């Protein structure tokens, strides 16, 4: 009776296996350090000497050297396994300027040693390190990162690596974490003169008294039905046993409207955004309210850190027509 035929493996099997081993999203990556290259050369030399001489002592030494390599792989895998990574992001990241970027790492049990964290992005360089991570609590790692230009950067993954325990190899693990970081225009000095402010009365009419103003206290009267409760003078209301509202004088204010044309080239647009950002900071430092028009988007004149952040955000996104599709972290 003839034996059943055994089909030979497909010629494409080896190609698929090699492509799988070389794929860019492979969960583990291994890089030999400078110390590791020296170690491997010594191991190779001992192996060649043991084969040529047949010396048992050299065989014993070769086994020890190879055992250290195996132990290094096992311990580094123990460090990377069980890690939980979360991108926290940056409060404010400016182009061509190092900024603080944060990641949160945790593990349920066991310790991790010699950890290095970085973003997998060609335009975002920088890293954070930690000597040891304990179990049962989260650790926030802070590192200095730099981006070459303004605008939204779409992030895809975070790379965590370790050289534990002997520093021979740097084993890394990639965590796919989609997100976005917004790089604000670079901080530069104001070139030339800043725009001249327009001076006028706050509010929408020209009366000297503006009941919803923020100027000096002009008088008190009883609160009428339907009026804004935020204008109540609580101290006087408590003493008079009735709701009393404050009337305040109108304040004069100075305003500047900045306009950005989005037609120039990307390099020229970047320079213009940096100039407008520098002008906005200078004007607000002088107590002047600043507005901004970017194409169809207009920000009304105002002042304060929150409004400055809105202006810088609008300038950072100018010229990028694609809206953000992922969570913004900065």
How would you characterize this protein structure?
With 330 residues, the protein is α+β, with helices and mostly antiparallel strands. The chain folds into 3 domains: 26-184, Immunoglobulin-like (Sandwich); 204-248, no CATH class; 254-317, no CATH class. 29% of the residues lie in helices and 34% in strands. The protein has helices spanning 11-22, 34-53, 56-80, 234-240, 266-285, 305-317, and strands at residues 28-32, 83-89, 93-94, 99-107, 112-119, 125-133, 139-146, 151-162, 169-184, 198-201, 217-222, 244-248, 252-260, 289-294, 297-302. The strands form 3 sheets. Strands 1, 2, 3, 4, 5, 6, 7, 8 and 9 form a 9-stranded mixed β-sheet that branches. Strands 10-13-14-15 form a 4-stranded mixed β-sheet, with helices on one face. A hairpin with a 5-residue loop joins strand 5 (112-119) and strand 6 (125-133). Helix 2 packs antiparallel against helix 3 and helix 5 (266-285) packs antiparallel against helix 6 (305-317). Mean pLDDT is 83; it is low at 1-9, 201-211 and 323-330.
User: What is the straight-line distance between the termini?
Assistant: 74 Å
Largest sheet: 9 strands, mixed
Q: What is the 3D form? A: elongated
- Which class best fits the helix and strand makeup? alpha+beta
Order of helix and strand elements from N to C terminus: HEHHEEEEEEEEEEHEEHEEH
């Amino acid at each position: 009776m003839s034996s059943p035929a055994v089909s030979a493996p497909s010629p494409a099997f080896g190609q698929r296996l090699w492509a799988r081993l070389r794929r860019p999203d492979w969960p583990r990556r291994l890089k030999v350090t400078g110390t590791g290259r020296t170690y491997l050369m010594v191991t190779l030399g001992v192996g060649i000497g043991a084969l040529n001489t047949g010396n048992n002592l050299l065989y014993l030494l070769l086994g020890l050297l190879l055992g250290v390599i195996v132990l290094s792989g096992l311990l580094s895998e123990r460090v990377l396994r069980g890690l939980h990574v979360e991108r926290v992001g940056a409060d404010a990241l400016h182009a061509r300027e190092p900024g603080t970027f944060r990641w949160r790492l945790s593990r349920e049990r066991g310790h991790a040693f010699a950890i290095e964290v970085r973003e997998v992005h060609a335009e975002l360089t920088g890293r954070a390190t930690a000597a040891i991570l304990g179990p049962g609590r989260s650790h926030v790692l802070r590192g200095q990162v730099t981006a070459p230009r303004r605008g939204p950067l779409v992030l895809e993954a975070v790379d965590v690596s370790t050289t534990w325990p002997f520093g021979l190899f740097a084993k890394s693990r990639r965590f796919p974490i989609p997100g976005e970081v917004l790089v604000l225009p670079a901080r530069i000095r104001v070139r030339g003169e800043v725009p001249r402010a327009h001076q006028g009365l706050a509010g929408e009419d020209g009366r000297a008294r503006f009941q919803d103003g923020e100027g000096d206290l002009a008088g008190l009267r009883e609160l009428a039905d339907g009026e804004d409760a935020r204008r109540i003078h609580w101290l006087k209301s408590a003493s008079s046993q009735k709701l009393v509202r404050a009337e305040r004088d109108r304040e004069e204010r100075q305003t500047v409207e900045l306009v950005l044309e989005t037609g120039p080239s990307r390099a020229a647009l970047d320079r213009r955004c940096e100039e407008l950002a520098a002008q906005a900071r200078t004007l607000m430092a002088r107590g002047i309210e600043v507005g901004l028009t970017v194409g169809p988007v207009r920000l009304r004149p105002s002042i304060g850190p929150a409004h400055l952040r809105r202006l810088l955000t609008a300038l950072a996104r100018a010229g990028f027509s694609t809206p953000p599709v992922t969570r913004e972290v900065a």
